[in-house]
Amino acid sequence: MPSIRCSASQLRLIASAITLLFILGCSRSQQPPLGLVRGTVRLDGRALADATVRFTPAGPGRTSEGTTDAEGHYELRYLRAIPGANIDQHIVRITTASEANGGRELLPPRYHARSQLEARVVTGTNDHDFDLRSQGP
Question: Residue 34 burial by CB count (10 A; 0-12/13-18/19+): exposed, middle or buried?
């Protein structure tokens, strides 16, 4: 039987590939049921760009997050490469504060720090639009 010789770099490459396959295989099988979540965020009737939208499950589970584009559209990500959010009732927090804008917040605390927003995520595609107001309740 012929022997196969591998260099140290080839062995490291093979070990890395096996580890990656193991991680990918395990992470998908252990993820909870998810629903796709998308929508639009408006502030005083206008699209709100560069806002972070977070859905935090009422029960156990990971927070899903998305960022609005120039038209105010967002899509939540459970993990970087996995779209969606836990199937559950969620507290929704929307914020404009970021490192890019020096932490400047445009929204009242009722939309983030003391959020009064809620949404339910079910199996399939969920459309959740948020029409926010800078003044009043």
Answer: buried
The answer to whether residues 92 and 118 touch, using CB atoms and an 8 Å cutoff, is yes
Choosing among 2.60.40.10, 3.30.420.40, 1.20.1250.20, 3.30.70.380, the CATH entry for 34-132 is 2.60.40.10
pLDDT of 5 above 50: yes
Closest-CA residue to 106 (of 59, 40, 46): 46
Rounded Cα distance between 90 and 35, Å, is 12
User: pLDDT digit string (tens) for 103-112?
Assistant: 999 999 999 9
> Cα Rg for the chain, rounded, in angstroms?
21
